[in-house]
């Protein structure tokens, strides 16, 4: 599996904040996602109603997940394909390797797939003598330098244009020195020459799946580069990797969710390529694979059903929550230390790998609520982050200083009169100590704050509770 470094979140986040190149990339990329999504959703009057419908489709599917997965399998088999059930990452890797060996594959092309990152597929194939070639441009650039994706729809989000060029030149040493790359399209044109040969050589093509349609046995992928189509139509064998919650009942349900997906992700009405694959090539077909395999992967998801984190399985991987998260846009995706960054990752990662290995992630949130407000299927991400924090506290994973501090606060909070007296004393002391300066450079019990920023000093006495009471009296 992908190396898990989530326990090191704080150090990695601090390093990210000091990385000027990363901060440049994050500033450049974030605002574009915001504005495009806002324009796309404003242009669709029924968008809010579609969010309710999308939520209800996913809720209904999850409540009947066993039925729809079995219906999907039956249709795939009827169409000439095969479905493989994998309980965990190891079974999924073994299944894919077996299919590749049966096809005598030496080269495998891959469309972007986060589930393949989750199960550590590339390393497993390479260790067994099979060369995987990423065909999404961002993934291809990252593969050249052995870096993991930092975003679920824009894998090289953390790189600037000059970073793309330097990585590309380092791997393509035969490029003329005077070859100029003005933007990513120039790099894409150059990469296309290499990837075209790889597409023709590949024995097996592996894609993810945005949706699986139970009604027809179809896997659906959305891309903006066309690499997904070439990955699944040119090789003799197509393998679609999908986690079990990707299934939806009907084509109509899928169409509804597609209307939500692209608008929420990139601000498009639909992605440039939306491809439906239903089984292997049939007699009248001019192209397509000879064999079609779907590898269904659980890897901990069935354990989430019926729990406080059940609603996370509604996620359609649009990344809207990531794009609008102030923590992600400050620290970037690699700080989160596993496959899934941002708010969705801070909920999903503890569910899949355990809160003991990822206790920092639920705390990487301001609880501003922007993630829930932009989620196309209305996942209550802040609520679930709070639930993980509660479990972190219950299992004594919270630092002892934090637990003691909360204990002191709770002792006072259970004694209202004493609490009000203590807060009045604390406020008066802060006003006195901060008079004439307006800020504190150092303050006992607030060292983590003042280590990187000043703490504003209150300009007048009085606690919030006292001011609130006075405001209420003035309105009578």
Automatic annotation (TrEMBL):
4Fe-4S ferredoxin-type domain location = 306-336
Q: Does the record carry Transmembrane as a key word?
A: no
Entries under SUPFAM superfamilies matching the protein: alpha-helical ferredoxin, NagB/RpiA/CoA transferase-like
Q: Name one GO molecular function term.
A: metal ion binding
Pfam families on file: Fer4_8, LUD_dom, LutB_C
Q: Name one GO biological process term.
A: lactate metabolic process
Q: Which UniProt keywords apply?
A: 4Fe-4S, Electron transport, Iron, Iron-sulfur, Metal-binding, Repeat, Transport
By its UniProt entry, which NCBIfam families does this protein fall under?
LutB/LldF family L-lactate oxidation iron-sulfur protein (TIGR00273)
This protein is called Iron-sulfur cluster-binding protein
């Amino acid at each position: 599996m992908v190396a898990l470094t989530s326990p090191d979140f704080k150090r990695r986040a601090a390093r990210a904040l000091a990385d000027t190149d990363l901060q440049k990339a994050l500033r450049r990329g974030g605002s574009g996602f915001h504005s495009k999504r806002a324009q796309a959703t404003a242009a669709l009057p029924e968008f809010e109603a579609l969010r309710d419908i999308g939520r209800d489709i996913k809720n209904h599917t999850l409540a009947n997940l066993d039925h729809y997965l079995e219906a999907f399998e039956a249709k795939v088999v009827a169409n000439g394909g095969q479905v493989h059930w994998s309980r965990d990452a190891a079974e999924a890797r073994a299944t894919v390797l077996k299919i590749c060996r049966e096809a005598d594959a030496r080269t495998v092309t891959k469309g972007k797939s986060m589930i393949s990152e989750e199960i550590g597929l590339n390393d497993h194939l390479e260790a067994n003598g099979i060369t995987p070639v990423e065909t999404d441009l961002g993934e291809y650039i990252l593969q050249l330098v052995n870096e993991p994706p930092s975003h679920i729809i824009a894998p090289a989000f953390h790189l600037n244009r000059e970073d793309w060029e330097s990585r590309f030149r380092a791997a393509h040493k035969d490029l003329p020195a005077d070859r100029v790359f003005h933007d990513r399209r120039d790099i894409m044109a150059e990469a296309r020459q290499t990837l075209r040969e790889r597409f023709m050589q590949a024995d097996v093509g592996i894609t993810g799946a945005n949706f699986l349609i139970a009604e027809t046995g179809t896997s659906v992928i959305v891309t903006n580069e066309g690499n997904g189509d070439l990955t699944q139509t040119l090789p003799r064998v197509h393998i679609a990797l999908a986690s079990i919650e990707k299934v939806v009942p009907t084509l109509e349900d899928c169409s509804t969710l597609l209307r939500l997906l692209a608008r929420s992700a990139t601000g498009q009405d639909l992605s440039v390529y939306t491809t439906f694959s239903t089984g292997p090539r049939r007699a009248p077909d001019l192209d397509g694979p000879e064999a079609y395999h779907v590898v269904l992967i659980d890897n901990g998801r069935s354990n989430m059903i019926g729990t406080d984190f059940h609603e996370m399985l509604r996620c359609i991987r649009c990344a809207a929550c990531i794009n609008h998260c102030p923590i992600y846009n400050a620290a970037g995706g690699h700080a989160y230390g596993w496959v899934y960054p941002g708010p969705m990752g801070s909920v999903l990662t503890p569910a899949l790998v355990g809160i003991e290995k990822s206790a920092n992630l639920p705390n990487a949130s301001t609880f501003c609520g922007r993630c829930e407000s932009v989620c196309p299927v209305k996942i209550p991400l802040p609520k679930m982050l709070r639930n993980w924090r509660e479990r972190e506290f219950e299992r004594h994973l919270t630092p002892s200083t934090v637990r003691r501090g909360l204990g002191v606060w709770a002792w006072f909070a259970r004694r209202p009169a004493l609490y009000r007296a203590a807060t009045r004393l604390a406020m008066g002391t802060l006003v006195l100590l901060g008079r004439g300066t307006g800020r504190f450079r150092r303050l006992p019990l607030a060292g983590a704050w003042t280590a990187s920023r000043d703490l504003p000093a209150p300009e007048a006495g009085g606690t919030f509770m006292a001011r609130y009471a006075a405001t209420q009296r003035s309105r009578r």
